[in-house]
């Protein structure tokens, strides 16, 4: 549990936690010193914050798949800093970070956050600045989804460098893009390949799917994975992945407009979804999704993207639903498509997307089918299990009201996220200094944020940047029936050069 304000200092975390021994108290007495004089680090003479707390103005993208007007959480949060909402538009993404496509700005000075962190590396620490080319390592977002996003995957670092060099228009940077999703309203998506027995079932019972994959390829897949779908033998797992790759590539060969089979197959699939009810897709199966639910999903997606290859891809991918607070981590090269809901998303700072369906945008079918790892697993294995955040103190009011801070800690170096819920007026969370930068967004309620002597009001949609080595205090000013909720994305390197958290 988080530490009570009057309690003794918490024990050092074990190696699996982000902090390493000795890091906790390294900057306690001089936490604000690097921000008071930029000459210490030989940085620019441009105006620097005396206290490393800045309210940010963040941009909001309008994409077709976003939610309309004020129903979009992304737009509503952006409006807290003057963004004007047009109710006839769909708003999809609020961006918080330094990515050059839509960099955040200091609300007071209008300088970009990218300029600020480049001019004063103390805001991120010299180590993080050097490793990540003087840019924030992560991109923090709010997504509001009314319509399916494209079937997609994000390239790993090596492939991203190759794709960017070859096609900078469609792959605008050279970074990888592992990402984490935390639901702030009920969410649904397609994520990762299903267990193989489920795919076998659908290849036997969904005849339009089998038509596109092909009889020979389908039969080979079914025969190869039969009684071996849960094997742990490396050689058999390799064979399983190979036949999965062949079957999926065979399906995706029909993703282009030149396919002559796709329109008729889609018509047959939609007709079956309308007429078969609970027996759609073979009825009872090993999938946690019923035939009737799959039928409704096909009809909904067909309404959004008629006769699209994505209608068939869903039989290869896990369909999942997340309740508020549940989370999912996707590595680079993991295939997915988000379908609906509002989410907090954190990722390595990249805008690279390799698309293959549910989109009018550029599709790169060959790259997608060749880049995937073809790992397969139940969706539960991709969900994250948040844990109590160790480096925060809750005051008595916070403890008495069951307030909490929980950590979502993916196995990568660039980011982690802390969600804090303060349930009563006067509830306070004091975060120990971090050896790295943070961005905090309020998604509900109101309160204050303080770093040193600087204290500012916070309400829904307010976004703040907190520099490295600064103690940060959040305090609720909400009524008893409202929770003050914030999400904090941060990067803090530990001694492991590969990961910034659990391996």
The overall pLDDT average reads 88
What profile does the largest beta sheet have? 8 strands, antiparallel
How many E-type strands? 26
Helical proportion, percent range: 10-25%
User: What's the alpha carbon Rg, rounded to whole Å?
Assistant: 24 Å
Numbering strands along the chain, what is their spatial order in the largest sheet? 7-2-24-21-26-19-18-16
Class computed from helices, strands and strand pairing: alpha+beta
User: Percent of residues in beta strands?
Assistant: 15-25%
Shape: elongated
N- and C-termini, Cα separation: 22 Å
Task: Characterise this structure.
- The chain has an eight-stranded antiparallel β-sheet with strand order 7-2-24-21-26-19-18-16, with no helix packed on it. Strands 3, 6, 8, 10, 11, 12, 13 and 14 form an eight-stranded antiparallel β-sheet that branches. Strands 1-17-20-25-22-23 form a six-stranded mixed β-sheet.
- It is an alpha+beta fold and 503 residues long.
- A hairpin with a 7-residue loop joins strand 18 and strand 19.
- The protein has 14 helices and 26 strands.
């Amino acid at each position: 549990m988080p530490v009570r304000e009057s309690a003794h200092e918490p024990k050092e975390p074990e190696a699996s936690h982000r902090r390493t021994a000795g890091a906790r108290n390294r900057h306690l007495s001089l936490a604000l010193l690097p921000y008071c004089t930029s000459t210490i680090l030989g940085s620019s003479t441009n105006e620097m914050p005396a206290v490393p707390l800045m309210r940010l103005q963040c941009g909001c993208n309008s994409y077709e798949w976003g939610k309309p007007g004020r129903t979009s959480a992304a737009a509503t949060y952006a409006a807290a800093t003057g963004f004007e909402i047009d109710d006839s538009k769909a708003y999809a993404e609020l961006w918080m970070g330094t990515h050059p496509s839509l960099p955040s700005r200091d609300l007071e000075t209008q300088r970009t956050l990218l300029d600020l962190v480049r001019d004063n590396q103390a805001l991120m620490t010299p180590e993080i600045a050097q490793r990540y080319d003087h840019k924030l390592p992560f991109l923090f977002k709010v997504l509001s989804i009314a319509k399916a996003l494209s079937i997609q995957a994000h390239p790993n670092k090596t492939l991203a460098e190759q794709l960017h060099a070859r096609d900078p228009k469609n792959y605008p940077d050279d970074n990888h893009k592992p990402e984490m999703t935390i639901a702030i309203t009920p969410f649904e998506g397609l994520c990762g390949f299903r267990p193989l027995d489920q795919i076998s079932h659908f290849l036997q019972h969904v005849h339009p799917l089998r038509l596109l994959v092909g009889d020979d390829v389908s039969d080979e897949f079914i025969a190869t994975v039969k009684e071996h779908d849960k094997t742990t033998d490396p050689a058999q797992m390799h064979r399983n992945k190979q036949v999965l790759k062949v079957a999926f590539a065979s399906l995706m060969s029909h993703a282009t407009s030149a396919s002559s089979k796709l329109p008729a197959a889609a018509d047959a699939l939609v007709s079956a979804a309308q007429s078969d009810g609970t027996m759609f897709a073979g009825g009872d199966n090993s999938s946690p999704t019923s035939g009737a639910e799959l039928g409704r999903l096909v009809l909904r997606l067909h309404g959004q993207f008629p006769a699209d290859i994505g209608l068939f891809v869903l039989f290869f991918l896990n369909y999942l639903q997340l309740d508020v607070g549940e989370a999912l981590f996707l590595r680079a090269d993991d295939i997915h498509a988000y379908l609906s809901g509002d989410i907090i998303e954190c990722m390595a700072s990249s805008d690279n997307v390799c698309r293959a369906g549910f989109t009018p945008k550029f599709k790169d079918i060959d790259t997608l089918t060749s880049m995937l790892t073809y790992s397969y697993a139940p969706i539960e294995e991709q969900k994250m299990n948040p844990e109590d955040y160790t480096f925060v103190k809750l005051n008595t009011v916070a403890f008495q009201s069951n307030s909490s801070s929980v950590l979502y800690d993916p196995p990568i170096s660039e980011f982690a996220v802390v969600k804090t819920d303060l349930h009563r007026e006067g509830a306070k969370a004091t975060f120990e200094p971090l050896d790295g930068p943070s961005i905090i967004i309020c998604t509900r309620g109101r309160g204050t944020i303080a770093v040193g002597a600087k204290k500012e009001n916070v309400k829904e949609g307010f976004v703040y940047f907190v520099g490295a080595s600064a103690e940060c205090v959040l305090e609720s000013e909400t009524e008893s029936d409202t929770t003050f909720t914030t999400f904090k994305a941060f990067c803090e390197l530990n001694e492991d050069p590969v990961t910034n958290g659990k391996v």
